[in-house]
Amino acid sequence: MQPLSVNEYLRQHIRTVPDWPAPGVQFRDITPLLQDPKVFRVLIDAFVHRYMDRALRPDVVAGLDARGFILGAVVAYELNVGFVPIRKKGKLPFTTVEETYELEYGSATVELHTDAVKAGDRVLLIDDLIATGGTMMAGKKLLEKLGATVTEGAAIVDLPELGGSQRLREGGLALYTLVDFAGH
Fold it and tell me: Which residues form a coiled coil (predicted)?
């Protein structure tokens, strides 16, 4: 029997919830990846081993609200670099910069503390999933407003049919994802 790749192993632990939060949506639930200590370690190690490489190593990891906090904080800890949260508007107590982006119905705003990164910092931007790419692109723009360079966007899951990963790449963001749910 052929051993599973890391990608296939992780895929087996992502739960698909049909018709949530709306009819016709196949929701990709990553919480089973976090519940099992072995699976969680495989997941985190997949990111850590990539970003230990000197050419890809960030100065700081930025995580997108909210599941990007879970991944980003652990990856930053393992890489021995700082972690900064990019939050939904109104959640950060200090001076912030903000970026508004379009959603399917309306818009949303994310914020970052003005002292979260320094000009010239190399930042890894991380979230759980790339759908339309709006949140990750807004995070990239926020970090760039403060003079940082986003070296890569990372996520567990890519949903390429929603066009986000293509839009992000066209917007100049290199991406690294572990599980692709194209055509599923």
Answer: none
pTM for the full model?
Answer: 0.95
Distance CA 175, CA 40 (A): 21
Q: Report residue 132: phi and psi, to 5°.
A: -85, -15
Instruction: Return d(Cα 33, Cα 43) in angstroms, integer.
Output: 7
| Cα–Cα distance for residue pair 50/56, rounded to 1 Å | 7
Rounded to 5 degrees, φ, ψ at 22 are -145, 155
User: Is 5 inside a domain boundary?
Assistant: no
CA-to-CA distance for 184 and 181, rounded, in angstroms?
6
Residues of the chain with pLDDT > 90, as a percent, come to 92
Domain that holds residue 92: 56-180
The yes-or-no verdict on residue 180 having pLDDT over 80 is yes
Closest alpha carbon to 150 in 55, 62, 81, 77? 62
Which residues are annotated as catalytic? 67, 104
pLDDT at 91 over 80: yes
